[in-house]
């Protein structure tokens, strides 16, 4: 038999191997596992308004954008009706 030294060595491996793996994968995570330019920069994203005036301005901007889209859709429908390209009208 190998004796108590082998048992001490095996016990040490059972303890140190998982700890060393956790230490390796737990340190310097930014250098190992990051993807460059994955998250947008702060200037490239939309800032959430918190103040009452900012919220009102944002609502007005959204309403104007929605109204503009609605007007464009109506113009497109009128153009389709004028040319007879609507659904079911050409048959």
Strand content: under 5%
- This entry's quaternary arrangement is single chain
Give the number of DSSP strands. 0
Series of secondary-structure elements, N-terminal to C-terminal: HHH
Identify the overall geometry.
elongated
Mean pLDDT across every amino acid position: 87
Number of helices: 3
Give the termini separation.
94 Å
Biggest β-sheet, characterized?
none
Q: How many whole angstroms does the radius of gyration measure?
A: 33 Å
Transmembrane segments: 6-25
Organism: Decorospora gaudefroyi
Family: Belongs to the PET100 family.
InterPro entries: Pet100
Q: How would you briefly describe this protein structure?
A:
Belongs to the PET100 family. With 91 residues, the chain is mostly helical.
Q: Can you tag this structure with a few keywords?
A:
91 residues, mainly alpha, 3 helices, 66% helix, 0% strand, elongated
